[in-house]
Write a structure and sequence with these properties.
Radius of gyration: 24 Å
Order of helices and strands: HHHEHEHEHEEHEHEEHEEHEE
Low-confidence stretches: none
Mean pLDDT: 89
Helix content: 25-40%
Structural class: alpha/beta
Number of strands: 12
Length: 325
């Protein structure tokens, strides 16, 4: 009976694509005997016919894909934040004994095609996508067309409507800088070597919001490169807000080479997932819970599967503050 139903479904897909049921089978097996154009037509027809959905009867049957869009200002999949996020995803999927795979590829407009997508997608064996990194509007529109549930872990503005979860860096920066100011440190510098990064933009917004109402925002203390650090020390900053661990290390090294004693040097504020390291100067951290984000992404994806017509929702997860005031 199940074989008969399968053959009937493949017959419908084949009729829609103008090919035989046998060719449908080969296309969904990603056979080299079938052209990429035919495979894409079969995939679209199979998605619209509900072929994959007919195989999913419980959460245990689900196969999820963590798809990382490479390129741009976002870090690679092997960045510590993304690896911790992956760990959280695997924990959440393991709780219901599902399956999850990871894949990294370019997903910007004009950078991808059906042939460059993961084999699991081309074979219609994916039930939902957790998207990290960069993705263009064309790819998001493709996912919407084929009815694949998707959630995006992104700090910028999505190219198309999509469920989005990320860290509330803006609030974390505002709270951390505000706490350091209340502790008596009033001259706060900002170092963001990665221009154009959505995360750095959020951190700078929080920095500005903490200082501007207090009349403490000094444009002379805002740097967008670590190349100019030698000129910073003459301005006597009491706190240096570095947007990454590498930038914080460069700041500490520059202060040491400038001969600034530890007891007279600046406090460092850094947004990082890395464990605390000894930088000679007091270090405060804005710490994103990447494992928790991974778990939350899976939960949101399951909600999206259950309610596909619901409007997209954007949620921000609070960062943990570790302050050395």
């Amino acid at each position: 009976m199940r074989v008969a139903k399968k053959n009937n479904r493949f017959g419908q897909i084949g009729e829609a694509c103008g090919i035989s049921p046998g060719a449908v089978t080969l296309a969904l097996q990603d056979s080299p005997r079938i052209s990429a154009e035919t495979k894409e037509r079969v995939y679209l027809a199979a998605r619209h016919a509900g072929y994959r959905e007919s195989k999913v009867r419980r959460e245990h049957d689900l196969c999820l894909l963590l798809l990382h869009g490479s390129g741009g200002c976002e870090p690679s999949f092997y960045h510590p934040i993304n690896l911790a996020l992956w760990y959280g995803v695997t924990q959440a999927v393991g709780a219901f004994d599902g399956t999850v795979h990871a894949f990294e590829t370019a997903l910007g407009d004009g950078e991808w095609s059906f042939a460059t997508l993961p084999t699991l997608m081309r074979r219609d064996k994916v039930d939902g996508i957790i998207l990290t990194g960069n993705a263009g509007g064309q790819f998001l529109a493709f996912l919407r067309e084929v009815g694949l549930p998707v959630v995006w872990a992104g700090s910028g503005e999505a190219a198309a409507p999509v469920d989005q979860l990320y860290f509330d860096y803006r609030r974390g920066a505002r709270q951390a800088v505000g706490a350091l100011v209340e502790a008596g440190r009033r001259r706060v510098a900002f170092i963001a070597p990665e221009s154009g990064s959505p995360t750095n933009e959020r951190l700078f917004q929080g920095y500005r919001e903490a200082l501007e109402p207090r009349g403490l925002l000094a444009e002379e203390l805002v740097y967008h490169s670590t190349q100019e650090l030698d000129a910073l020390w003459a301005k006597r900053p009491e706190v240096v807000f570095a947007t990454s661990r590498d930038a914080a290390i460069q700041v500490a090294l520059s202060a040491t080479l400038a001969g600034i004693p530890t007891q007279e040097g600046p406090a460092l504020l850094v947004s990082t997932l890395h464990p605390r390291v000894d930088l000679r100067y007091p270090v405060s951290r804005i710490v994103p819970d990447a494992v928790g984000l991974g778990q939350a992404l899976v939960a949101r994806l399951l909600e999206r599967r259950a309610h596909p017509a619901a409007p997209p929702v954007t949620s921000l997860l609070a960062c943990t503050l570790e302050l050395a005031t």
